[in-house]
Design brief:
GO terms for molecular function: alpha-1,4-glucan glucosyltransferase (UDP-glucose donor) activity. It catalyses: [(1->4)-alpha-D-glucosyl](n) + UDP-alpha-D-glucose = [(1->4)-alpha-D-glucosyl](n+1) + UDP + H(+). With about 700 residues, the protein is α/β, with parallel strands linked by helices. The chain contains 27 helices and 17 strands. The strands form 3 sheets. It has a 9-stranded mixed beta sheet with strand order 3-4-5-2-1-6-7-8-9, sandwiched between helices. Strands 14-11-10-15-16-17 form a 6-stranded parallel beta sheet, with helices on both faces. Strands 12-13 form a two-stranded antiparallel ribbon. It is elongated.
């Protein structure tokens, strides 16, 4: 017909209109452009209606599905809501059955879908205990959990078959690798039986996404047994890379020089390394979580990843709309209470001029950059002293280590502080009552009679009790083998013992924070909100959830260009420093230069005014949308599409003008510079645009609502 457009053109125009409407909601989404829905790929966010029509199924396999072990649990759990929004019940997660976790997190039931039920019944008839349920998290995803012990009787047969097919031998003493063999066989067994439930005329599109080496055997068997499915393998950190970095090797400068088989054999992980490398090699689509890990995988696993899948967060969980500044002030007051008790007797600094820095994570002294952080704190202490600054920095190190109890001095300090608080509160109530009674009688209160002699004696007792002969402890617990503990040894070497003349104080808390902690009753999220700066100068960090969590809570952070998060921000934010994302160069600089750069970052931050810090927190929180799974889930959708293209090229075509790369570039802010050193190249020029006016309005509101240093 004249004047009419082809159906495909109309479909594309409607898709573009939908994308434009979705992308106009904020500056972040405007930068995402066509990445948010991938409508032309058929990946509709309709809770699985489109996937059901296409007979498309997704199995997400990971050892940490409903089983908290490490960071992959956070990835799977936080991503579930977006995955279910797209795929609904067409997506099923598979993991091991752990009774303790299942009782708390999973609602067990029988599956409604006959295909799933048929595959489960087939396995049950062979003695395998397999459970179906709903994971009690956002999205309410369906999960299939295998009892690993029920497959133990098949272990010897499965190990022999694996060796015959792939020449990968698993030693009997490696229980974790044996569990991986059982788990992988059970997963591939289920996928094969699930495929058999369809009629011969049906052509289901099955995608199996395997995370990490522990699930890699399942992927290997899917290929060796020619199971009709498209496979994706995601490595969140290479096994060999983590071991090499733990040994303090010059890892990144020697990536292409390692004898891989020898290095894996020397560390007793050759069989695990073979499992991981085979999974990466055989996968239809190989992915990883960051560009820095992609470079590592290219050398250690001998395959360049097809895609990078950045880790996101469920921002709704962390973001407190328009109230995060108030939450910062409230949470900071809890930290104030702890600091008052910890430094009793040496409480000679002004909390209104005190900043709280922190680092946290697994206790990997070198990998997590604790050595660089402590060395930089020593330099920061010197810079603050020679400049005559009145600012005090209290640096927290939150690393779980082996301890035998709380430090007696730490407990005593908190008890004394609490006693003082109760004593002063009682005296305050008595004085308030006297003033009230006097005013009611029409008399001015006699100031000489407000404080009774008994009250004066009580206050003097408090003052004497507050005195302590020694310095405040640098550690809140009694650490086992403290003479060889790397953090405590480093603190002794740099001489930061919380002296009165030190402008940097150190508190090492060798235990994760919880609200039930008798010493410091504050959960981790609340603690992060109360701090001013998170410092994570990691040497080996495939992604880095800790700085990402800081960002979505509006807390500035320091990362490095050797961490996935740091690389992501460098790539997608025009001027990260202006948004409170400081990135230390640990890739192209010598260690001393990196230490000096970090010290300079922390010093510059300590010299910001209160108004500048509020403005910077507003900017930092604005980046939270960039880390939301609603934005980053598109990468997983593209990986699934690419896997289908590899196995069904006649059905799915690749049309990507950018050569497979999806880029985001968040613009430089155009408001007042956050740094006191206006000559720095990274500082944006002042402007009077709408963004600046919005920031100033937010800043004025925050100043009225909160009393914050």
């Amino acid at each position: 017909m004249a004047g009419s457009s082809p159906p495909t053109s109309g479909f594309r125009s409607q898709s573009m209109m939908r994308m434009q409407r979705a992308a106009s909601s904020s500056k972040i989404q405007r930068t995402l452009g066509g990445l948010d829905m991938l409508d032309e790929m058929g990946m509709e966010m309709d809770r699985g209606r489109t996937a059901a029509q296409e007979n498309r199924w997704v199995f997400e396999v990971a050892w940490e599905v409903a089983n908290k072990v490490g960071g992959i649990y956070t990835v799977i759990r936080s991503k579930a809501a977006v995955t279910m929004e797209e795929l609904g019940d067409q997506c099923i997660m598979m993991g091991p059955y752990t009774e303790a976790t299942v009782k708390m997190e999973v609602e067990l039931m029988e599956p409604e879908n006959e295909l799933i039920k048929g595959a489960m019944d087939s396995m049950r008839s062979k003695g395998i205990k397999v459970h179906y349920g709903r994971w009690l998290i956002d999205g309410y995803p369906g999960v299939i959990l295998f009892d690993i012990s029920s497959g133990a009787s098949y272990l010897d047969t499965w190990k022999r078959d694996l060796f015959d097919m792939s020449r990968i031998g698993i030693p009997w003493h490696d229980r974790e690798a044996n569990d991986a063999v059982i788990f992988g066989n059970l997963c591939s067994w289920f996928i094969a039986d699930f495929r058999k439930q369809f009629e011969e005329s049906d052509t289901p599109l099955i995608i199996a996404h395997f995370h990490e080496w522990l699930s890699g055997i399942g992927l290997i068997l899917c290929h060796l047994r020619h199971i009709d499915c498209s496979t994706i393998f995601t490595t969140h950190a290479t096994l060999l890379g983590r071991y090499l970095c733990a040994g303090n090797t010059d890892f990144y400068n020697n990536l292409g020089k390692f004898n891989l088989d020898k290095e894996a054999g020397d560390r007793g992980i050759y069989h695990r390394y073979c499992m991981e490398r085979a999974a990466a090699t055989l996968a239809n689509v190989f992915t990883t979580v960051s560009n820095i890990t992609a470079e590592e995988s290219q050398h250690l696993l001998q395959r360049l990843p097809d895609l990078v899948l950045p880790n996101g967060l469920n921002v709704v969980k962390f973001q407190a709309v328009h109230e995060f500044q108030n939450l910062h002030a409230k949470s900071k007051e809890k930290i104030h209470d702890f600091v008052r008790g910890h430094f009793h007797g040496h409480y000679d600094f002004d909390l209104d001029k005190t900043l709280y820095f922190f680092t946290a994570g697994r206790y990997e002294y070198h990998n997590k950059g604790a050595d660089v952080f402590l060395e930089s704190l020593a330099k920061l202490n010197h810079l603050l002293q020679v400049s005559g600054s009145e600012v005090t920095v209290v640096a927290f190190l939150i690393f779980p280590a082996k301890t035998n109890n709380f430090n007696v001095e730490s407990l005593r300090g908190q008890a004394i502080s609490q006693h003082f608080k109760e004593t002063v509160s009682n005296i305050k109530d008595k004085i308030g009552k006297k003033i009230f009674e006097s005013i009611l009688r029409g008399d001015m209160p006699d100031t000489d009679k407000l404080l009774e002699r008994a009250d004066t004696v009580q206050l003097k007792r408090c003052i004497y009790a507050a005195q302590r002969p020694g310095l405040p402890p640098v550690c809140t617990h009694n650490v086992n083998n403290d003479s060889s503990d790397p953090v405590l040894s480093h603190i002794r070497r740099i001489g930061l013992f919380n002296n009165s003349h030190d402008r940097v104080k150190i508190i090492f808390h060798p235990e994760f924070l919880t609200a039930t902690n008798p010493l410091f009753a504050c959960d981790y999220e609340e603690f992060v909100r109360g701090c001013h700066l998170g410092v994570f100068p990691s040497y080996y960090e495939p992604w880095g959830y800790t700085p990402a969590e800081c960002t979505v809570m509006g807390i500035p952070s320091v990362s490095t260009n050797l961490s996935g998060f740091g690389c992501f921000m460098e790539q997608h934010v025009a001027d990260p420093t202006s948004y409170g994302i400081y990135i230390v160069d640990r890739k192209f600089k010598a260690p001393d230069e990196s230490v000096h750069q970090l010290a300079r970052f922390m010093y510059d931050f300590s010299q910001l005014t209160r108004r500048q810090r509020i403005l910077q927190r507003n900017r930092t929180e604005r980046l939270s949308e960039l880390l939301d799974w609603k934005s980053l889930g598109v990468y997983y959708r593209k990986a699934r599409y690419l896997a289908l293209h590899k196995t069904h090229p006649e059905i799915f075509e690749v049309r990507d003008e950018n050569g497979g790369r999806m880029t985001i570039r968040y613009p430089r802010p155009a408001s007042a510079p956050p740094s006191p050193s206006s000559s720095r190249a990274s500082t944006p020029l002042p402007s009077t645009d709408d963004e600046d006016e919005e920031d100033e309005e937010d800043e004025d509101k925050d100043e009225e609502k909160t009393k914050e240093n």
